[in-house]
UniProtKB/TrEMBL annotation, chains A, B:
CDD domains: HTH_ARSR. GO terms for molecular function: DNA binding; DNA-binding transcription factor activity. The lineage of its organism: Bacteria, Pseudomonadati, Bacteroidota, Flavobacteriia, Flavobacteriales. Coiled coil: none annotated. Residues 8-103 form the HTH arsR-type domain. This is Metalloregulator ArsR/SmtB family transcription factor. Keywords: DNA-binding, Transcription, Transcription regulation.
Length: 109, 109
DNA sequence: TAAGTTCATTGCAATATTACGATTATATAT
DNA sequence: ATATATAATCGTAATATTGCAATGAACTTA
């Protein structure tokens, strides 16, 4: 059905899934890496850097912005996108909590 | 088109995206959390624990297994699934490298 | 052997995602 | 006002994902 049953999971589980989904496409990974490398950025750059069409990049940026991981400031005719450091730090905490789990005992396998 | 153009990205970017995709569904997050909490596990448990139908859980397990994050050993009529610690550690390295990036300079925004 | 248990696979329907051409907004410059 | 530049939005096509009923495979027990 393509419809995730979010109501049967905890808020934390859904949050982890949402962040992960954002990183679940190499274009968005590349965009974020680029935004980290350069101090601030413009969408046009990304279209060249990544190699996808402008509407596609714009759509990926929108998703990242909706999640709060990046923010965009109007700067003349172009828009300056950059990492939202505070939200990125919060996201990192949530993700690390998940990734850094240790195995309890281990009886089988 | 629903088709990710993986060929235009680096291996690392695609790897990060693949791992993230696996975590991009709350059921798979819940499965992994459960496998961490309990030492080894059986699929039947998960069906009760998670609340989705058995074929659905089985499918999620298959994806996680394909990625190498979990492994399953036959144990009588049931199968004991558990975290593949070595691969989990490797995955963690890749993901941390991505999540722990720091901003270069920061000129705008 | 027959019945039961457990999990995988198949097949399908519904929804989501990805990508891009065409168009539209917004601002700047002439 | 007109032209230009940049990025968002719309519309659409193709593919992917999610979920489950039905079925199948493998093993255990009576």
């Amino acid at each position: 059905m393509g419809l995730t049953k979010t109501e049967m999971f905890t808020d934390l589980q859904n949050e982890i899934a949402l962040f992960s989904k954002a990183f679940g496409h190499p274009a968005r990974v590349a965009i974020l890496q680029h935004l980290f490398k350069i101090e601030g950025c413009i969408c046009g750059d990304l279209v060249e850097e990544i190699g996808l069409a402008q509407p596609t990049i714009s759509q990926h940026l929108k998703e990242l912005k909706l999640l709060g991981l990046i923010k965009g400031n109007v700067e003349g005719t172009s828009i300056c996108y950059c990492i939202d450091e505070e939200n990125w730090t919060n996201m990192k905490k949530v993700m690390l909590q998940f990734l850094d789990q240790d195995i309890a005992n281990k009886k089988c396998c």
